[in-house]
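Hmm, what's this shape?
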Amino acid sequence: MTRKKVAVYVRVSTKDQSVGMQLNDLERYSKERGLTVYKVYEDNGVSGTKETRPALDELMNDARKRKFDVVLVWRFDRFARSTKHLVTALYEFRNLGIDFISYQENIDTSSPLGEAIFTIISAMSKLERDIIAERVKGGLRKARASGKRLGRPKNDVDTDKVIEYRKQNKSIRQIASEMNLSKGAVQRTLEMCS
C-alpha cells in the first residue's frame, strides 16, 4: 500500500514568532500515521486574515495539480481566520479528493466525525451569510422608510450645454469629460432630446 503524501501548512503572524512547535507536532503526527511529508508550506509574519499568502497560494496551486493527498495544519486558525475562507478551501479540497486534518482540533475530514464537523461548519457559514444579508436588507428598508435616497446621486445635466457641444461635433466621450459626467449620462440626455 502506498503511503499518503501530506502537505504541511504552518503560519505565524509576526517575524519574531517561530513555527517550530507547529512543525514538531505535525511532523510527529505524520510519522505516527504513516504519512509521507510531501512539502512544508510556511508563511512567516503573515496575518491569517489575508486569503492570499505566498505559501498558502503555492499549497493551493499544488493541490490543484494533485501533488499530495492530505493537508495537515496545526489549528484551523493557522490556515484560515474566516469561516468563509475555511469552508471555500475545504470544498475545493473535497472536490480534488484531498483530505484535511487539523491537529489541535483533532478533525480529519476523511473520517465520519470529521465529515460531520465539516457539514456543521458549512451550515454555520451559511447561517452567518444569511444573517448578514438580513441585516443589510433591514437597514435598506429602514433607510427607505425614513426617506433616505439610496444609490448613487444623479448628476444634474445641463441639457442645453450637452446639445450645444454635440452640435459642435464633439464626441460623447469629449462631452462627458468636459462636463464631468459619465458617458452614459451624456448618451441618455442625447436620447431624450432626439
Remarks:
- The first helix runs from residue 20 to 32.
- The first strand starts at residue 5 and ends at 12.
- Strands lie at 5-12, 36-44, 70-73, 99-102, 107-108.
- Helices lie at 20-32, 54-64, 76-79, 83-96, 112-145, 159-167, 172-179, 183-193.
